[in-house]
Amino acid sequence: MGTIICQDCQKIIEHFDDVKVSTLYGTCSSCNNRCES
Q1: Which are the contacts of 16, defined by CB distance < 8 A and separation ≥ 6?
Q2: What InterPro entries does the entry give (predicted)?
Q3: Which has the least CB within 10 A, 1, 13, 28, 32?
Q4: Per DSSP, which regions of the chain are E strands?
């Protein structure tokens, strides 16, 4: 089980089933919208 975490606000974006990867960093939609405005 892995987790995708927002690199800006540290909020959990999504959980996924993958044995090899435990944590990935991305940007959630609320942070994307804030950065684009």
Answers
A1: 1, 2, 3, 4
A2: SR1P (IPR025236)
A3: 1
A4: 2-6, 12-16, 23-26
